[in-house]
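Practice problem 4.
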């Protein structure tokens, strides 16, 4: 099955594309949620999302409380991360692209929050925190690559 836009087609079925995105997003979210409960220097990616939500909401004249901001940020994170990792299916080499997208997302998580005005503490407070931030997004890319590289299931007739 091929789909795409002008000049770009892929042999990756749409269902597998979506599943790869979900796998990448789930890996990042699970690592963040478990890591923040277990590791002292764990990145706090959810705080970046909540800060971003509050910042945008204030500009729109709203004031979400911490709990609302957390849930909105979590939903936005799953949607955006899922879409990000699903992009890999559009590449000629989807597994390689998924790993690169994970690495780019990890670099962005470490380098961009300060420039965006949402603080560096959650993902860069120590060298270990920065390394884990990068590693978690890379793990999301690896999870997406695993889905994109696995053989399609066979249906019994």
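Answer key:
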């Amino acid at each position: 099955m091929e789909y795409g836009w002008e000049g770009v087609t892929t042999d990756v079925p749409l269902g597998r594309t979506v599943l790869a995105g979900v796998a990448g997003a789930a890996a990042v979210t699970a690592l963040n949620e478990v890591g923040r409960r277990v590791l002292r220097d764990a990145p706090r990616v959810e705080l970046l999302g909540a800060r971003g939500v509050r910042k945008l909401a204030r500009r729109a004249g709203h004031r979400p409380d911490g709990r609302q901001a957390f849930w909105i940020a979590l939903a936005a994170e799953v949607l955006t991360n899922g879409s990000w990792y699903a992009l890999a299916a559009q590449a000629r080499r989807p597994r390689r692209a998924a790993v690169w997208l994970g690495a780019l997302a990890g670099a962005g998580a470490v380098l961009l929050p300060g420039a965006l005005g949402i603080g560096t503490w959650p993902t860069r407070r120590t060298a270990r925190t920065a390394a884990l931030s990068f590693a978690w997004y890379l793990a999301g890319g690896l999870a997406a690559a695993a889905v994109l590289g696995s053989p399609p299931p066979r249906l019994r007739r």
